What we know:
Elements: E1 15-17, E2 22-26, H1 33-36, E3 42-48, E4 52-54, E5 59-64, E6 70-74, E7 80-85, E8 97-99, E9 106-107, E10 112-116, H2 118-123, E11 130-134, H3 137-140, E12 141-146, E13 149-151, E14 156-162
Antiparallel strand pairs: 1-14, 2-3, 2-13, 3-11, 4-10, 5-6, 5-9, 6-7, 7-11, 8-10, 12-14
Organism: Agrilactobacillus composti DSM 18527 = JCM 14202
GO biological process, one term: phosphoenolpyruvate-dependent sugar phosphotransferase system
Pfam families: PTS_EIIA_1
Amino acid sequence: xxxxxxxxxxxxxxxxxxxxxxxxxxxxxxxxxxxxxxxxxxxxxxxxxxxxxxxxxxxxxxxxxxxxxxxxxxxxxxxxxxxxxxxxxxxxxxxxxxxxxxxxxxxxxxxxxxxxxxxxxxxxxxxxxxxxxxxxxxxxxxxxxxxxxxxxxxxxxxxxxxx
Length: 163
């Protein structure tokens, strides 16, 4: 009977999943210096090889940008994760993006979130890198452990542990 009340609770999962097929790179290697400097929080980048973006963590969707270039997820452990699709893609006013989730949705790691038309982004002469950062790193992050290299969307690539 009490299980009914826990239905909408986020899944407790500290694993970090590959958000897209491609090459996982250190955050310092991304072309956007605000992210590369970790001013937005600790995280990583992925040079994508396809259009399907999946949840890099399990949690609750807390934000979908009006321009569809970014999605926020809060993990059950309190870490706030931002998935930023491309660099300066806000200027494209949502054109290359399709979002499959809405604020309040519960997601599991590896669940499809969005698609990003890489050709449209590249044709606009913009970087297609997918950036994943924990925006409350300074206050809440104890450790982010990530394995760089070639990855497949949904693969476990590390863990994010809260303080």
